[in-house]
Amino acid sequence: MSDMDGRTVRVTVRESGGERGQHLWIHSVAMKRLIFTCICALVAQSLPGQEYKDFGKDRLNSSPRHGEWVDIKSGERIIKAFVVYPERKDKAPAILVIQEIFGLTDWLRSMCDELAENGVIAIAPDFLNGQKFEDADGARKAISAVTDDQVKTVLDATADYALKIPACSGSIAVCGFCRGGGWAFMYANDNQKLKAAYSLYGAAPDSGDKVKNIACPVYGFYAENDERVNATIPKAEEFMKSAGKRYEPVIYKGAGHGFMRSGEPNNPAIREADKKARDEAWARWKNLLKQL
Fold first, then answer.
1. Which of the two ends of the chain, N or C, has the fewest CB atoms closer than 10 A to its terminal CB?
2. Which pLDDT tens digit goes with each residue over 101-128?
3. What is the rounded CA–CA span in Å between residue 132 and residue 126?
4. Is 184 helix (H, G, I), strand (E, B) or coil?
């Protein structure tokens, strides 16, 4: 029946219980359009919806706290970073905020605002030079091109900038989400000035050499349904214990990877189990932030 050059085709339909046939004349262009529409509908049903859709602008637009973009010089390079200041009458500790694979998104910036709401100066450097992604494949490809040396360079420059902020108390920490959670753990080994590191569902170090220089406690926030990441925890516990370091991993029951994003109340695709885990993680994290 298919005719790809636009000619008319004939379809013969046999009636049930009889020999008589009817001939239907259908223009092939119309038929091709119909087939194409059906295929598109089936493909659309197979896609993961808005799982990676960015959100967070509502919080940023309604926040009473001051947020701004800044330029951080690192050699010949200028690093863009987003900073949010807390509303408080005294100097505040600063926390470096490391993005997920999707870039310095509105959601990540809204996390900076939420951290600032809890009394810290939150500063998030942009590792992807303005790129933001809503598809996971493109995000993974871009973030995988960032080397460990580049991560250290960006975080070193950001830490130096943060410590020179007049409103900073001189206390600094680091946090990260997903890939950024792994980078936060890694950076704790690179910067002995850190007062704490918070790794949120990021892979833990895979060798003793990657933890031997850590001078601060590392707090882990992990999801129960995330064995890809959780499988790295036991070895890291061994390495940290052998090196005399403090590592406190907590696994949140019922949660999936990325629960700080997927459990966000403003997320249009919120998952209830992740919301519960997020609430529990925040309660713990708020108490830890007070110790900076």
1. N
2. 999 999 999 999 999 999 999 999 999 9
3. 10
4. helix
254: in domain = yes
Shared domain check, 235 and 114: yes
**Do 216 and 276 sit in the same domain of this protein?**
yes
What would the 3-class secondary structure string for 83-116 be? EECCCCCCCEEEEEEECCCCECCHHHHHHHHHHH
Q: How far apart are CA 248 and CA 125, in angstroms?
A: 26
Structure tokens at 261: 């994003």
Confidence of residue 130 (pLDDT cuts 50, 70, 90): confident
Q: Answer whether 198's CB lies under 8 Å from 183's CB.
A: no
**Separation CA 84–CA 264 (nearest Å):** 19
Read off the amino acid at residue 270.
I
Verify that 62 and 193 share a domain, yes or no.
yes
